[in-house]
Design brief:
CATH superfamily: Nucleoside diphosphate kinase-like domain
Largest sheet: 4 strands, antiparallel
Order of helices and strands: EHHEHHEHHEH
Structural class: alpha+beta
Number of strands: 4
CATH architecture: 2-Layer Sandwich
CATH topology: Alpha-Beta Plaits
Bound molecules: uridine-5'-diphosphate, magnesium ion
C-alpha cells in the first residue's frame, strides 16, 4: 500500500483545524498509520525544503514553520500521494479550489495549513526524515 508524509503546519494547529483536516483525510478513506506532534528547527527545514533554500522568502518559511508545533503523520492508501495533493489543493492560495483544504482555509501562500509529499520517492524520504525507519 502506498504511503505519504503529511504535516499539519503551525497555523492549522493554532487555528484548531487539526480535527477538521484529519476528518477530511479519514472521510476520503485514507488510513493514518502514525502521528506525532513535533517542533521543527531550521536545520531540518533546510533539508525538507532544500528546493526553496535559495528563494528570497525562505527565511519567512522558516519563521512560520518553527512558530509552533506541527502534527506529523504517515498516511496510507490507494494512490495516496496524488490523492492527498488533490485534497490539499494548490500551493498558491488564490489557485486552491473551494472544497480543498487550502481552498477552504488558507488566505496566504506561506501559511497554507498542510504539507504533503509530491512523489512516492519523496514520500519515503520524508517519512524516514521525520519518523526514521518504519
Ligand atoms: N511557499 C511560499 N511561497 C511560495 C512557494 C512556497 O511561502 O511562493 C511555502 C508554502 O508554505 C509551501 C512551502 O513553501 O507550502 C513549500 O513549497 P512547495 O513549492 O513545495 O509547495 P507544496 O508542495 O507545499 O504545495
Ligand atoms: Mg512541496
Amino acid at each position: 500500500m502506498e504511503r505519504t508524509y503529511i504535516m499539519l503546519k503551525p497555523d492549522a494547529v493554532k487555528r484548531h483545524l487539526m480535527g477538521e483536516v484529519i476528518s477530511r483525510i479519514e472521510r476520503k478513506g485514507f488510513n493514518i498509520i502514525n502521528m506525532k506532534m513535533i517542533t521543527l528547527n531550521e536545520a531540518v527545514l533546510k533539508e525538507h525544503y532544500a528546493h526553496l533554500v535559495e528563494k528570497p522568502f525562505f527565511p519567512e518559511i522558516v519563521e512560520y514553520m518553527v512558530s509552533g508545533p506541527v502534527l506529523a503523520m504517515i498516511v496510507e492508501g490507494n494512490d495516496v500521494v496524488k490523492g492527498m495533493r488533490f485534497l490539499m489543493g494548490a500551493t498558491n492560495w488564490l489557485e486552491a479550489n473551494p472544497g480543498t483544504i487550502r481552498g477552504d482555509y488558507a488566505n496566504s501562500t506561506t501559511e497554507n495549513l498542510i504539507h504533503g509529499s509530491d512523489s512516492v520517492e519523496n514520500a519515503e524520504i520524508e517519512i524516514k526524515r521525520f519518523f526514521g525507519n518504519i
